[in-house]
Specification:
The complex is a heterodimer of chains A (178) and B (167). With 178 residues, chain A is of the alpha+beta class. In chain A, 38% of the residues lie in helices and 21% in strands. Chain B folds into two domains: 32 residues; 129 residues, Immunoglobulin-like, CATH 2.60.40. The chains are: A alpha+beta (178), B alpha+beta (167).
């Protein structure tokens, strides 16, 4: 009887060890992804260092599914820069180009107007009611780098969540194998 | 150890790494190019110059813009976005940049151009400081790459002046 109990215990311990190491592996992957993301936020000074282009308003420069790398920095905002900004009352940030800048002499505040390269009109129609200018606090970052197509992954994943679960499942399977 | 999943994983990892390296090299190769662009802008006419009801001054200009931006194009260039901005200082604002005209140059063949145009975007001041105002016209360009880092630079042209009187 004694040896049976011993062998059962040993089997149990192996399984426990395996699941534990799998959990640790998965935790490592998730935390390193988090570290990279938060590290990028620190380095770039932008609350969202990578964005995916969702609209056609900047064609042919940026197409749907392209990825933009953002950088905020302390440099003043200037005409011609492509910025990502939030408008009060809209939850999706917009990627457009600055066409007008007015910078105050005394406070250094900036008043900017944006426009999408592919849009016929400037962005006053997109801003909140009665808003004529964007200010610094609306701006999340300026685009400094560009990578085509990679963003399609996230567009597809947000479009049909099933694929997201399949990818998470595949990740689990890969980490479970030694 | 040598299962299908393992091999597929290794293959995809290698593929993505090679692709990322190639993108990085394509972007870095842009640094080898040192462009020598040139530009001239003439203000042919002040079409009208008046004060809006809210007190802001607005002016309409006819411009001749000629530029040669061919040297900017490399094999990693998708397009060049070029725009002309009026830049000036007022007592209230340390900098005013007002875009007057812009264009997208899709290829090297179109990078040498001469355009005769009125200002595409409205030239409105924040206030009324434009009478007799000296201003710069600056041709800015933003090079959009096929992949990687974006570049920007400008040519500043000085010595333009708006008329003293409304017309």
């Amino acid at each position: 009887m004694e040896w049976i109990r011993e062998s059962v215990d040993s089997i149990k311990s192996i399984q426990l060890r395996q699941t534990l190491s799998q959990a640790v592996n998965l935790g490592l992957i998730l935390t390193s992804a988090l570290i990279i993301w938060k590290g990028l936020i620190c380095i770039t000074g932008s609350e969202s260092p990578v964005v995916v282009v969702l609209s056609e308003s900047m064609e042919p420069g940026f197409q749907r599914g392209d990825i933009l790398f953002l950088h905020m920095g302390k440099d003043p905002l200037r005409a011609g820069e492509i910025i990502v900004f939030n408008v009060d009352g809209r939850d999706i940030p917009i990627v457009h180009r600055v066409i007008k800048v007015h910078e105050r002499q005394d406070t250094g505040e900036v008043y900017i107007l944006t426009k999408g390269d592919n849009n016929p009109e400037d962005d006053r129609v997109l801003y909140a009611q009665g808003q004529r200018w964007l200010q610094r606090h609306h701006v999340m970052g300026r685009a400094v780098g560009f990578l085509p197509y990679v963003g399609w992954m996230t567009i597809i994943m947000t479009g049909n969540p099933i694929i997201k679960y399949i990818i998470i499942g595949a990740l689990l399977v890969i980490t479970s194998k030694d | 150890m040598h299962s299908f999943g393992y091999r597929a994983n290794a293959l995809i990892t290698l593929g993505v790494t090679v692709l990322a390296l190639m993108c990085a090299m394509a972007s870095l190769s842009d640094n080898l190019n040192s462009p020598t662009p040139s530009a001239q802008v003439q203000v042919l006419n002040v079409n009208w110059f008046q004060k809006q009801r809210n007190g802001n001054e607005e002016v309409s200009l006819t411009l001749n813009i000629s530029a040669d931006l061919q040297s900017m194009f490399t094999w990693n260039t998708k397009q060049v976005f070029v725009f002309l901005a009026a830049e000036y200082e007022t007592p209230k604002n340390s900098l005013n940049q007002v875009s007057l005209w812009d264009g997208i140059i899709p290829s090297k063949e179109h990078a040498k151009f001469l355009i005769h145009t009125t200002n595409k975007y409205r030239f409105i001041d924040q206030g009324s400081n434009l009478q007799g105002k000296e201003f710069n016209l600056t041709l800015h360009w933003h090079v959009m790459p096929k992949t990687g880092k974006m570049f920007a630079d400008k040519i500043v042209m000085t010595g333009y002046r708006l008329p003293e009187e409304y017309r």
